[in-house]
Structure formats: C-alpha cells, structure tokens
Amino acid sequence: MKRYSRRTILAGLGMALSSPVWAARGAHAAQDTTIRIGYQQYGTLVVLRHSGLLERALAPAGIRVRWSEFIAGPQLLQALAADAIDIGETGNAPPVMAQAAWPDGLAYIGCSAPAPHGEGVLVPASSPIQAAADLKGRRIALNRGSNVHYLLLALLQRAGIAWTDIHPVYLPPAAGRAAFETGQVDAWAIWDPYLSAALMDTQARLLVDAQGVTTNRQFLIASRPFADRNPGNVFTLLAQARQDCVQWAADHADTLTTDIAASTGLSRPVITRALAQLALRPAPLDQAVVTEQQEIAATLFHARLIPGVPDIRAIVRGA
C-alpha cells in the first residue's frame, strides 16, 4: 500500500505543522490564568460563549477565557498545534486525521449528541442530480479535512462510487458558496450555519444530509500537554457549564439568535434554522462514541487519507 509522508498528511489536513510544535506546548507554566478556546460558527461552544456561563464558572479560580473564532475544524486544529489555543471544538473527522499524524498531540475531552441534520450536500434547485449515485463525474466543493470530507466519502461509498470518480474542489465555506452560486461546481458539501444560509438565501436544494450516514457529533479537543495539566480542574467546570448551557439557551432563545446573527452577519431566520439542527446537550464519551470514531478512522485509512488507523480510546479523557 502506498505510504504517505508527513507533508502529504499535513496538506490533507490543511495544516502547516510539525511534531515539535506539540512538544513545545509543555513550556507553559503549571497554572494558567487564561484558557484559550477556539470555536466555530457552528457547535456548542459558540452558544457557550454567548451565555457567559464558562467565565462565571472559572472566575472563582482566577481563570479567564479568551475566545478565538475559526472557519473550520482543520484550521482550528492548526491553531491548537501551533499553541494558539488550548481547547477547541470540531466535527468528527478532523481529530481523527490529526491523531493519525500526531498520536500524542491531542486529547478528546467531551462530545455532543448526534446532529445529522447539521451537515449535508447541496445541489442547485434545477439540478438533474437526484441521489448520491448521480454525483459520479461531478465537481463537488468541500472543505478539505473537515467533517463533510468524511460525509461525502461515506455517501459515495454507499452509492458504490470511488473518490476518484468525482472531481473534488477544495474550498473554504465562503469560496465554496461563491463557486456553488456561480455554477462552477455541481454540488457543495457543507455544514451549518452555511448550510442553512444557502438553503434560505440561494437557489439550493438539499440532496442529502448525514441522517443514516454519520452522527455529525461535535468534539471538544484539547492539546495533550494542556489536558495533562488541566489547570483549576477546568474540564469539570467546562462540562458543567456546557450542561447548564442547555437550559440557558432555551431560556434566552431570542437573545441568542439575535446575538449570533449580529456576530455572523447572517439573518435571524438562518440562525434559527441552524440552532434547531444543533445538538447542544453533551453526550458521554463512551464506548459507542469511540466505536463511531474508530469506524471513521478505518474509512479514512482505506481511502488513503491517513497513514494508519489511530487508537481512539488511547486519547479519550473524561469531561
């Protein structure tokens, strides 16, 4: 079987990283005073950020929170490896790819319940494409190394289509939407809130979402050195804040929608739809979740997207 160099793996993830970066993270003092958290426009952390619950939970320990927004999971993991953040949230595929390249670099510290309607494949409303099988030979936009990379791979495999039978066009969300709207691609694999925005603001049709294909969980990932330190018992406080955030979001739905719409520049109806697809409630990092991730790892390996099948259980921490 063809072997993949580190350069190939990094290119596949969209990360210009190397293993010494992970080792450098141990240079922090034993007690941090600021926890650096990466979030995206989709996921549980964006809601937690707007709630302010984590700041209030950490304040008695003298710990502050600094938030940084990222466009997608691979870019967020790049920041994690570059020592720009301590904790972040991504979809299911990026941490598997990262672990394959850096077995001791990161740790799973939490996850969400399934949210299969939060990602999908879009086609123009007038497109003749009616099923996943019709994607053969088509140009499909997607963010390389993201959760939809795995979604598309799994959809094609179920339809009996090889990856080499499509023409992937690797674009971040904004460029992907532009290519989709101007007809430069035939389909677009994308997640919320970009998915909801395209459905509500463009002539797009949902070909298929992740229902029955993958759970589309969100995972909290920490750098391994930070996970080893866990200053101020941050993970326990984070887990409680995430749990409390479920009720907070229900009680402040209108304010939350307004605030996220203002911060993203998306309309309230788009945010309302996206939030409705989001599984805000935390889920246990149990054997069922590990098995899901292990199956994703095997699929990515057989598709030659990673050089080996990492042991997911080896880097799972409680949260």
TrEMBL record:
State the compartments where it is located: Periplasm
Q: What is its main location?
A: periplasm
Residue span(s) of domain Solute-binding protein family 3/N-terminal = 34-252
- Pfam families from the UniProt entry: NMT1
Q: Which residues form the signal peptide?
A: 1-23
Q: Which GO terms describe its molecular function?
A: ATPase-coupled transmembrane transporter activity
Arranged from A to Z, the UniProt key words for this protein are:
Signal, Transport
Q: Which GO terms describe its cellular component?
A: membrane; periplasmic space
Record function comment: Part of a binding-protein-dependent transport system for aliphatic sulfonates. Putative binding protein.
Protein family according to the UniProt entry = Belongs to the bacterial solute-binding protein SsuA/TauA family.
Q: Which PANTHER family match?
A: ALIPHATIC SULFONATES-BINDING PROTEIN-RELATED
The protein's name is Putative aliphatic sulfonates-binding protein
